[in-house]
Design a protein that fits this description.
mainly alpha, Glycosyltransferase, three-stranded antiparallel beta sheet, 9% strand
């Protein structure tokens, strides 16, 4: 497993695929590409997908992968689509989805969605120096802090003008949650990206507060895992262990800790992150070399999801680098081998399948692109591993 392996993956497979489904007429990528690689031109465009694509192209520029001129053109067009169509100039925030030409379809405002726009705009600023992008990211941060939270933390779903809504967009598995671990994690991620770009002390303080919420309410010390779905008082409402989110948290939260350089937060959070990585390493890799999805009420879902594999490559390697966890480096290598053998779509022009069943077949035939299927997880895996690996070793 070498840096050149990950550079090849992003330059020869991931970038060409996403350039191939780019909608040059209206901007951004097509909102849906089916299992057979057909662009569905009239599909809605999810604003989360748009932010994640902007984040991806921006980080291609930051990391110096791909054709700079081509990538810059697509980053600029995706940024313009976000600013012209996804951003609400009247009430603030980001819409949930728009049509191909940018007409608003779903006006729901969601904290998760706004956080991803912050993450993307912060990266676009770092890649291009566009100051308006940073100003917009900061405005969205201010909006989350003023309209999307209460005294105990972050709320999630709102109407167009920020009245509370039922949180059905981020609730799954038959429950409706007032608060979710997933949204908290990605608010942290967006704020960390903004802090990396701006060094705004207010943002740093918000990150420290999020880390405290994680410590006090989200992490289950007895089970050495994060709880996933909560009522408004942070009572867990489902016995669910998300292996992918735990291994993602173990490295992503460590990145935030390193950025803010706060000794008290590090002393409190660092041991938890190590426990999360050790626990996933122990219980989620029982066969085939990949990482299975989750465990609900004691029943393991043996699906192999594309983003879980991506985060596991980074998370296990991080556990090796950060804490010298025994077996973590080889686990990272095993998951990368698993990706190359089974998850990569080897059909002409393919990218990665959404998921595999326990027989390692993509029988779900899920779309290759849709509002949640994006180049953010596998692209980030490549960027992180290129930075972390040294081909001279």
């Amino acid at each position: 497993m070498r840096a050149s392996d990950f550079k090849k993956e992003v330059e020869c497979r991931i970038i060409p695929f996403w350039l191939g489904c780019y909608d040059d007429e209206f901007g951004s990528v097509f909102g849906q590409v089916d299992f057979n690689h057909k662009n569905i031109e009239d599909a809605e465009k999810g604003c989360i997908l748009n932010s994640r694509v902007l984040w991806f192209f921006s980080n291609c520029l930051i990391e110096g992968v791909g054709d700079v001129d081509v990538i810059r053109d697509k980053a600029d067009k995706t940024y313009k689509f976000l600013m012209d169509h996804c951003l609400d100039d009247i009430n603030g925030g980001i819409f949930w989805s728009v049509s191909r030409d940018g007409t608003v379809l779903d006006r729901t405002k969601h904290t998760y969605n706004i956080a991803f726009a912050i993450y993307a705009l912060s990266s676009y600023f770092r890649a291009t120096g566009n100051k308006k992008a940073l100003v917009t990211a900061t405005d969205l941060y201010n909006l989350i802090e003023s309209k999307c939270r209460d005294e105990d933390g972050y709320l999630e779903a709102f109407t167009d003008d920020f009245k509370p809504l039922i949180n059905d967009k981020l609730s799954e598995n038959g429950v409706i949650a007032d608060r979710t671990m997933n949204t908290l994690l990605h608010v942290l991620e967006g704020f960390a990206g903004l802090y990396e770009a701006s060094h705004d002390e207010r943002v740093r303080k918000s990150i420290i507060e999020i880390l405290s919420i994680f410590d006090e309410h989200v992490y289950n010390r007895e089970k050495k895992r994060q709880e996933v779905f909560f009522d408004k008082d942070y009572s867990s409402i489902l016995d669910l262990h998300s292996y992918g989110h735990d291994i993602e948290t173990s490295w992503l939260m460590g990145w935030a800790l390193d950025l803010i350089d706060d000794d008290e937060s590090t002393d409190k959070i660092e041991p938890i992150l190590k426990e999360l990585a050790l626990n996933v390493l122990k219980i989620a890799r029982e066969h085939n070399g990949g990482v299975v999805n989750e465990c609900e009420n004691g029943i393991v879902d043996e699906t192999y999801v594309w983003w879980v594999q991506s985060e596991s490559v980074i998370g296990f390697y991080n556990a090796y680098e950060r804490w010298n966890v025994e077996g973590a480096k080889s686990a990272s290598e095993d998951v990368f081998d698993f990706i190359n053998k089974y998850v990569v779509d080897k059909r002409d022009g393919g990218e990665w399948y959404w998921d595999l069943d326990k027989n390692l077949e993509p029988t779900s035939r899920k779309d290759i692109v849709e509002p949640w299927k994006c180049p953010y997880h596998n692209g980030r895996m490549c960027f992180e591993m290129i930075r972390r690996l040294d081909d001279d070793k």
